[in-house]
Amino acid sequence: MDAARFLVRRATVDDLPGLATLWARCGLQVLDLERHLTEFQLVSSWDGDLEATLALRIQGQEGLLHSEAITRPEQEDDLRQLLWDRMRNLARNHGLVRLWTQEQAPFWHQVAGFEVALPEHLKKLPPAFGNPHQRWFASLLRHNTPGALSLEQEFELFQQSSRASLNRVLDQTRKLRITGYLVAVALFLGVFGLAVYLAIRGARDRSGAPRLRR
């Protein structure tokens, strides 16, 4: 399959009619999925025809892949690969540690690397994802180390550092401005005082000068 023929993007409200039709065809709960529209990524042709869709739900550092729906059975795995590439990028950008799914297609286990979740793994399954007593598959993306930050977290730290630097610059600017005002006032008072002194002295000199007698 020529991947250049397809566009992979986030679903929008304009996609709802086509998505609802595809969800219904695949036996999914349309009304429930409509409320989670922002979770969906889709593959479409450049002409706008919907080819496949998959959702990513994020809870903390855990992600759930759910509600796969595909229009072309003969190209299922190729379309899944496009969605999987997209989901891995999203997961990395959000700093996710693990992805979960209950999708049964062999692609998710043979290609994407999802494995049956063991009981010790299921302890980390967010309750919002579903029943931990069901059959789950998980894919570990990275180890959750204390020093690991997502791109969003790193960007937030960068913004905080930038704001702190800007505040320091503004504070120094205010101090320099105040210092400049004080120096200007001191110079003005000095010049004014000198002018007054010279004026008084001149007046004294004129009043004390001896007058010539005729």
Task: Note the main attributes of this structure.
214 residues, alpha+beta, Aminopeptidase, 2 domains, 7-stranded mixed β-sheet
What's a quick, concise take on this entry?
It contains six helices and seven strands. By secondary structure, it is an alpha+beta fold. The longest helix is centred in the C-terminal third of the chain and has 58 residues, at 151-208.
Overview of the molecule:
The chain is an alpha+beta fold and 214 residues long. It folds into two domains: 3-145, Gcn5-related N-acetyltransferase (GNAT) (Aminopeptidase); 149-214. It is built from six helices and seven strands. The chain has helices at residues 16-25, 30-34, 76-93, 106-110, 119-122, 151-208, and strands at 6-10, 40-45, 50-59, 62-70, 98-101, 115-116, 137-140. It has a seven-stranded mixed beta sheet with strand order 1-2-3-4-5-7-6. A hairpin with a 2-residue loop joins strand 3 and strand 4 (62-70). The N and C termini lie far apart (125 Å).
Helices and strands in order:
Blueprint: E1 6-10, H1 16-25, H2 30-34, E2 40-45, E3 50-59, E4 62-70, H3 76-93, E5 98-101, H4 106-110, E6 115-116, H5 119-122, E7 137-140, H6 151-208
Parallel strand pairs: 4-5
Antiparallel strand pairs: 1-2, 2-3, 3-4, 5-7, 6-7
